[in-house]
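Appendix B, Record 12. Input sequence as logged:
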Amino acid sequence: SQIEVTEYEPTDDEVEQQLSTYVDSWTHNEEVEKDTVEDGDLCLIDYVGSVDGVEFEGGTGTDYMLGIGSNAFIPGFESSLIGAKNKETTTINVTFPETYSVNPDMAGVEAQFEVTIKGIYKEVSYELNDASVAENTEYSTVEEYTAVVKEEIKNNYLANQAWQALYEKCEFKEVPAYAVQAYKEDLIAQFEQTLSMYGMTMDSYLESYGY
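Logged structural output:
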């Protein structure tokens, strides 16, 4: 049987709201001229961690953009960088948490990090103009991009209608095994990608929880 949908024309407010949502997601880091690190700064750093002068696995990073106060690193790491000199190397002393699932071998260990502040940055938002569209999309002008977004809203509306009509017409008693497997593989791939940002693998993650 056929599925019927109703034509739809997005309003100007809908298009502007969607454009605003996209533009708000466009940010870039801009280097600022500062002598020392302050809480809230974004710092581009290299770091080398060691225990009693011996480097340890997972304690080294290059060109990492760290937000001071973001709590992305272990307690004491970011706060110890407040007051550090820009474009210089400093050594900080930190103690890993008593419970540290990322690397249980480092739990409670006192370590030293040699940290080089390569630059201090701030996150800057874009305004909607031809230049920002060209930099953040495959289009060249606001006019061109607006037309594309308008068409996207329209197509999404029609697609939602079609899916809703399909749901109302169809039913099934069991999810196909291939669909379950595909969904499972997709979730695992997404999770592994997230873990890789923290220098972990699925095996190391599971092992840290005793699985």
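Strands lie at 27-32, 42-51, 54-67, 89-95, 110-125.
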